[in-house]
Design goal:
Elements (H helix, E strand, L loop, with lengths): L9 E4 L2 E2 L3 E3 L1 E2 L7 E2 L9 E7 L7 E10 L2 E4 L18 E8 L2 E3 L2 E7 L3 E5 L10 E6 L3 E7 L5 H11 L4 E6 L5 E10 L12 E8 L4 E3 L1
Antiparallel strand pairs: 1-10, 1-15, 2-9, 3-9, 4-5, 5-8, 6-7, 6-9, 7-8, 11-14, 12-13, 14-17, 15-16, 16-17, 16-18
């Protein structure tokens, strides 16, 4: 087991999205094939907006391989095998766009995840003697970020702009060994300053994930 620490991380936000490529099919297989005319190459990062196959909707993946200009495969968590779509729901329509992570996010002193817990409803009837709960989904995933405030910081300015314009963005957190986390969501940035007496002035930001995070190498 590898133990990771929050030291030496690189954080980046989407600086550009490529042209929208229409997907016509996604197979259900141990290494799912994504079909649609494209110009992606292996190693590219792509944002998927999909109907039907909810497991890949609003998520960012890395392209594993490209067999033709009309199909490609995506990396699984180990960075080698293709993404297993065997048990995913059935695709109906969708798009893919190349993501460029050109905006460095710096000055982050803390980032805290929340959500992703089972969401329960009470299914107890008058016939039960013990409360019965039913899982109906999961709670929303979020990241809360604390920044060392710097109004001249390009990354903080970009997050403020994304918040002001209500533009969802893709993010990438990279660890020193090359492992990374990808996610896509709505950006919050307060711009309000604070902090303890004689301490570093801070401000806060957030990302409300619109889909599940993706891990890769």
């Amino acid at each position: 087991m590898t133990i990771y620490t929050n030291s030496g991380l690189a954080m980046a936000m989407q600086s550009a999205l490529g042209a929208t490529k229409t997907l016509t099919a996604i197979s259900k297989a141990s290494s799912g094939v994504f079909t649609g005319t494209h110009d992606f190459t292996a190693g590219d990062f792509v944002l998927l907006l999909v109907e039907g196959m909810k497991e890949v909707n609003n998520r960012v993946f890395q392209v594993l391989s490209v067999s033709t200009t009309v199909s490609f495969q995506l990396e699984a968590m180990d960075g080698a095998a293709g993404l297993d779509t065997t048990n995913f729901t059935t695709f109906t329509s969708g798009t893919a766009q190349k993501v460029t992570f050109g905006t460095a996010i710096s000055g982050v002193s803390e980032f805290t995840p929340s959500g992703g817990d089972p969401k329960m409803v009470d299914a107890t009837t008058v016939h039960d003697v013990v409360e019965v709960q039913q899982v109906v989904g999961a709670t929303a995933r979020n990241y809360a970020l604390t920044f060392q405030w710097d109004p001249a910081n390009a990354g903080q300015a970009a997050m403020l702009d994304a918040f002001t314009t209500a533009t969802p963005k893709s993010f990438k957190i990279t660890y020193p060994n090359g492992r990374f986390v990808l996610f896509y969501g709505s950006v919050g940035f307060s711009g309000m300053v604070g902090g303890a007496s004689q301490g570093i002035t801070t401000t806060t930001g957030s990302v409300a994930l619109l889909g599940a995070p993706t891990y890769g190498l």
